[in-house]
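In response to reviewer comment 3 from the previous cycle, which asked for concrete evidence that the modeling workflow produces usable outputs, we include below a single protein chain processed end to end. The sequence was submitted unchanged, and the resulting structure tokens are shown without manual editing.
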Amino acid sequence: MTGRHGATGAIVALGSSGLLVSLLQTAIVPLIPQFPALLSVSSSSASWLLTATLVAGAVSAPVLGRLGDMYGKRRMLVLSLGIILVSAVLAAVAPNFAVLLVARAMQGVGFGVIALGMSLMRDVLPSAKVAGGVGLMSSSLGVGGAIGPPVTGILAQHGGWRLLFVAVALGALGLLVVVLRMVPESGLRSGGRFDTVGAVGLAAGLVCLLLGISKGSEWGWASPAVLGLLAASVAVLPVWGWFELRRSSPLVDLRVAARPAVLRTNVASVLLGFSMFAAFALATQVLQAPVATGYGFGLSMLAAGVLLLPIGGAMMIFSSVSARISRGHGPRVTVIAGSALLVVGNAGIASLPATMWLVVVAATVGAVGAALAYSALPLLIMRAVPETETAAANSLNTLMRQLGTSTVTAVAAAVSGLLVVQVDGHLLPAGSAYTIIFLVAAAAALVALLVAARTPAPQPVETRTS
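The workflow returned the following structure tokens.
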């Protein structure tokens, strides 16, 4: 257990690690349209630079969480940061698209940092510091999503796309040193043997599911490839669950995951991930859309990103507010309050405000809601699982949020492809498309609110020692 001074250093180190990883997830988004010309590849090939990271992150997060519970959370955290460092260097010097794609897949492994960091905080921080530290770490997912695009715009404009990965490499190197010096290792271990078969089965099911969702609009939802992937996931994941229930030391303890407090929290996480990412990613698109569309403001990518920078600041501030609400009233109340604000924020953007400042205000309200809810979700999870399984449980919860954010892209692409308007000879999403998407996001947050309201208080669980 760290002292007060050491606790602050550990929180800063772990929170910064989470911010770096979340930046990796979204910072490359503005560069995707430029990579076909820069690397002589098709637009569909360039999109794999996002898909590869998403799929690799979804597969590796539960594995790293379980290994952290078994062999040491800081050890796995350092390994993840090391992989990010190597992959960033590889991306910065990549001579072709294939090497860059491998580097981006490696960077997906870094997604395990956030779940490992939150679990470390529970183990090594004084109890009074846990809620605030976990809130900061968890909300870094949203902060990175908010500030990633403008940071990329600034770096790419002044130094080219490779400078982005140089900055990531330097950040990872610095964080490796800081984590090794400031963050102690947890003494809690779950024991048991690593479930290799379970890891392979989960990986196969998730790869099929996420590829089907992320490529549905591009390949066609009725295409044999997409239907085959989704059918394979439906076939594999139940078999994997059946297998896990019969293991004495499973990769994911589904009996614990099925407890009402854990299950409903994970369901709410999927819905909140959808709602949050819509408010962030699509608000930028509304600001950049041409004025001739009737709803856009014609801003550049950099201007739109800078205009939405207050979102990141709001999330940082309200992650600490979330901790105070959770301490005084419980994390469930915090999730409910955050969900309500996400409803208001998304509904506000759905009305397609006539001024850009109203768009910013609505997006910021949604960001505050995301900060409150995201900061409290891990606290609900950690109260409901054994101390020796917090990394695995938080990894699963992080995966649920990623599933929600990946679904936004698929829904947005499907709706935007059906409802279009022609501007200067180009087909662009109509205003009604954005209205529908944001209303769906508001509805998702409303359902999350209802699920959270019916989530029972977590019951104590025995620590597994097998």
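Strands lie at 420-423, 426-429. We consider this sufficient to address the reviewer's concern, and the full set will be provided in the supplementary archive.
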